[in-house]
Specification:
The chain is an all-alpha fold. It is built from 10 helices and no strands.
Length: 206
C-alpha cells in the first residue's frame, strides 16, 4: 500500500509501513479474537449472541487473551533469537567455509550469503505498538497484562539489541521522523484503555 503512496523520503515510507502494520496487527489480535468468539456463540440473533458470549468463563475470550500475552512476552523474543532463517543461513556459511577453494560461489553470491540480515525497523515498531495497544485494550479485564507486557518488553529490548549488534547488517540511514511519529502513535493507548471492553454488556445490551 505504501508503495502506491509515493512518499518523498525513505523515512516517510517506513513510517507509513509501521503505522499500517500496527493497525493491522492490533485488529488481528484484539478484535478478531473477540469477533470469533461472537461468531462461534450459539444464538439465533445478534442480541442473544452478545448476551451469551463467553467472556470470563472457561475457554472464553479472556482466557484466550491470557495466553496471547504470555506468547507476546516469551515466544516472540525466542523466535527472534533462534531465528530459523538465520540458523539456515549460518549452516550454508559454515558449509561454504569448509569447502574452501572448492567452493563454486561467485563473489556476489558469497557477499549475499555472508551479509547480515536486514533490521526491519517498521516491523519492530509495529510489534511494539501492537503490544502496547493490546495491553491497554484488555488491561481493565486482565490486570496481569501489564506485568506480562513489561517483562516481554525487557526481553525484547535485550534480544533485539544483541541480534542487531551481532547478527544483522547496518540499518539504512533514517532520520528521527520515524521514531517521533511512532511515539505519538502510542498516544492511542489512552483511547484503547478508555474503551472499557469488559463492560461491553452494560453498554451494548442496555
Amino acid at each position: 500500500m505504501n508503495r502506491f503512496e509515493k512518499h518523498a523520503t525513505y523515512t516517510r515510507y517506513l513510517r507509513g509501513v509501521a503505522q499500517k502494520l500496527s493497525i493491522a496487527q492490533f485488529l488481528n489480535t484484539a478484535i478478531v479474537n473477540m469477533l470469533s468468539q461472537l461468531i462461534l456463540t450459539n444464538a439465533d440473533t445478534l442480541y442473544n449472541r452478545f448476551q451469551s458470549l463467553n467472556f470470563y468463563g472457561k475457554g472464553g475470550l479472556l482466557e484466550n487473551m491470557y495466553w496471547v500475552f504470555i506468547t507476546n512476552a516469551l515466544l516472540f523474543p525466542l523466535l527472534t533469537f533462534f531465528d530459523p532463517f538465520y540458523i539456515w543461513k549460518v549452516f550454508w556459511q559454515r558449509r561454504a567455509e569448509k569447502q574452501g577453494d572448492k567452493n563454486k560461489l561467485t563473489q556476489m553470491e558469497a557477499n549475499i550469503l555472508f551479509e547480515g540480515q536486514i533490521f526491519h525497523m517498521p516491523k519492530k515498531y509495529a510489534g511494539l505498538s501492537k503490544v502496547v495497544l493490546l495491553t491497554t485494550f484488555y488491561a481493565p479485564a486482565i490486570p496481569f497484562a501489564f506485568i506480562f507486557t513489561i517483562i516481554g518488553l525487557i526481553i525484547w529490548f535485550w534480544t533485539d539489541k544483541y541480534v542487531l549488534l551481532r547478527r544483522l547488517a547496518l540499518p539504512q540511514s533514517i532520520n528521527h521522523d520515524l521514531t517521533d511519529s511512532m511515539v505519538e502513535y502510542l498516544e492511542w493507548s489512552t483511547v484503547t484503555f478508555a474503551v472499557i471492553l469488559f463492560d461491553y454488556k452494560s453498554i451494548i445490551l442496555e
